[in-house]
Amino acid sequence: RTAAALCPGSRGHRRSANLFWGMEDLIFLDLKKPSKADLQKGLWAFISISYSREQADSHMPAIGEVHSLRESSRQISLKALSDANADDSVGLLARYARLLTSMGSRFGTAVDEALRRTEAQLAFTWNDALRPEAKCTLSQLGFERACAMFNLAAALSYRATIQNTADADGLRAACQDFQHAAGCLDAAVGSAAGTRWATYKGLTLDVRPAAFEGFRALMLAQAQRCFFERASRDAMKGAVVAKLAAQVGLFYKEAAGALKALRDACEREGPGGDAVEGPAKKKKNNPYFQDPKANMTRDERERYQAETADKVAPPLLLSLIAQAEAQATLFESWAQFHAASEHEDAYEYGSQVARLRRASELVGEAAAKAAGVPGGEACALAMNTAANSIREAEAVAEKHNATVYIERVPPFSSLPTIEPKAIVRPTLPSELAPPAPPPPEEDDDGRDSALDSGFDPFASLVPLTVLEDASVYYASRDDVLRQLGDEVESLDSTAEAELFAMGLPHALAACDDDAKLPAALSEAVARVHGSGGAAALGEMLANVKQKTKDLDSLAMSIDALLEVEEGADAQLHQQHGERWACVRSSALTADARRELAQTREEIAQAEAANEALSTHHADHEDCLSLLDLDAGALAGRVPQAEEGSRLADLECVGDIRTLLASLSSCSETRTAAIAEAPPPPGGGG
């Protein structure tokens, strides 16, 4: 497509009904041209690696339909858009862009990383919409989404330009399409932010951040123009229309600034269009090269960059910049023109003339900027029409003021500035909204109709970010469960020790038979008496302490023998010298010393244990005295209820049994809750 295609020229059904100017100069973006890409092989390999081969095989029909959808959108890009296929093209491109957005949210950059440097690595090749002979090939799914969003924005902008803007409904539809186009470009900027592919040296001009920002501002400017057109047709207050026009000019100015930055990048980095996998490398300094901008002033440097950039920048980009700058100046003129009507209504004829003079100057500048711009014939025609209308209104106002009102014309700088009022904003088209899940019906060929309805064909695959978060969650959960299990086990042991110290729960057995010793206790008392009772326990403790002393004495004897042996060995070594070295016993003595040291450590530990046991025996000597009582005396000490009742029937006994049962139930419930925690789910969802 040539540069002239950006300004389609006059179409009879789009002739504006406005008195002053038409909307035949609306601009639409050209489609990017993609090359073929094998999505089937790449997506199948990715799902096999990241999920399972079974999941990949089950999704093969959906993968095939994704590939077909991409091919259908590619065919649209290869053909020229027309009035007949605009709606269908927008719908199909939106479905593909929505699918890529869903895949990006579900898989992230895992597709790129999993397939990097493999035979199944994806390769997306797109030509430059500004310089069709240039193209870029990258393997990132985010790059494919950004290009798809660009094409959707281009199709929406084209559909906006073919609306019948002479009609209120057509004007509203055009405004909506331009806002949707801006929303798609805004989404493309978001998908490029912080990504590796956005820094590639070989990136084409049309998908660089400055291009997205410039095209976005251009779409918003044209959407705001629709509001301005409607307001001027409906003869709204001049102040309102002036604010709308000022914002149109501001949007055009933003577009021109971003596109000029893109143009300047051509001079610094080249126009791009080479497939380079990797970030841009810094240029090496050449000591023999003198930078021509080194000694220039700021104005000289900007002029030099503009002149050199024009030699490498695409003509299409230069045409867009010139038209955006001309439109920005024109709408500054329209803002002054409509603000002048407010002065007229307020009988401020001098101020009216001042604003119309400024409007006439600006429209002249705009016409000069648009003159001779390649592809800007419709834009230049609109400028000339506007210039004639504004200058005619200025002449009438000048004549009336000079012959009737005779008011002093104030300097334009003394007049209040016009505050712009934005009515439009980037919005995503309804075609990008995710549809409701389709019913589980099948087509005639037996495949699910999810993709045909626009629904995500990979909805059954859990997003990888969710799987990663779930893995972290289950690892943390298992740590918590292990800690809880250890705490439960520790609490159970503590509870058992505390209950045992209180004689529970075996003490409750005595409540079953009043004034009788439990059978187990009677047997234990009999065994104690048969072994000698408490006196026998004291004798055993004394014997243990005596044996420890005997061992210590034996260790001292061995130590003395080793000293004698070491003295004899040293004497013989002194007497015979090196001849004694081959038969000396010092090595054996050293081994015996080590064993003796270890034995003394064990004796010391035994002495400490004996001391602790003696202390414990002394502390419980009163309790041990009960072991000397016979069974009859012990039975007399067993608690018993009042006459006519049983211990087992007492309220306090029932409360103790209830508390013990509750404690046991609580422990069992906690243990069961920990055991019933579900295992981590599989990767397939």
Concise synopsis of the structure shown:
It is built from 20 helices and two strands. The protein has 685 residues and is mainly α.
Name the overall outline: elongated
Strand elements, count: 2
Number of helices: 20
Neighbour order of strands in the largest sheet = 1-2
Helix content: 55-70%
Q: Give the overall pLDDT as a whole number.
A: 80
Strand content: under 5%
How much is the radius of gyration in Å?
47 Å
H/E order of the elements? HHHHHEEHHHHHHHHHHHHHHH
Residue ranges: pLDDT <50 for 5 or more in a row? 1-22, 275-290, 442-451
Helix/strand structural class = mainly alpha
The termini sit apart by 47 Å
Q: What does the main sheet amount to?
A: 2 strands, antiparallel
Describe, in plain words, how this protein is organized in 3D:
33% of the residues are buried. The chain has helices at residues 39-50, 53-58, 60-78, 86-107, 110-115, 141-161, 168-192, 209-233, 238-269, 298-312, 315-345, 349-370, 377-405, 464-501, 519-530, 533-576, 586-619, 621-624, 631-636, 651-675, and strands at 124-127, 135-138. The chain has 685 residues and is an all-alpha fold. The model is unreliable at 1-22, 275-290 and 442-451 (pLDDT under 50). α3 crosses α4. A two-stranded antiparallel sheet has the order 1-2. It is elongated and about 140 Å long. It has 20 helices and two strands.
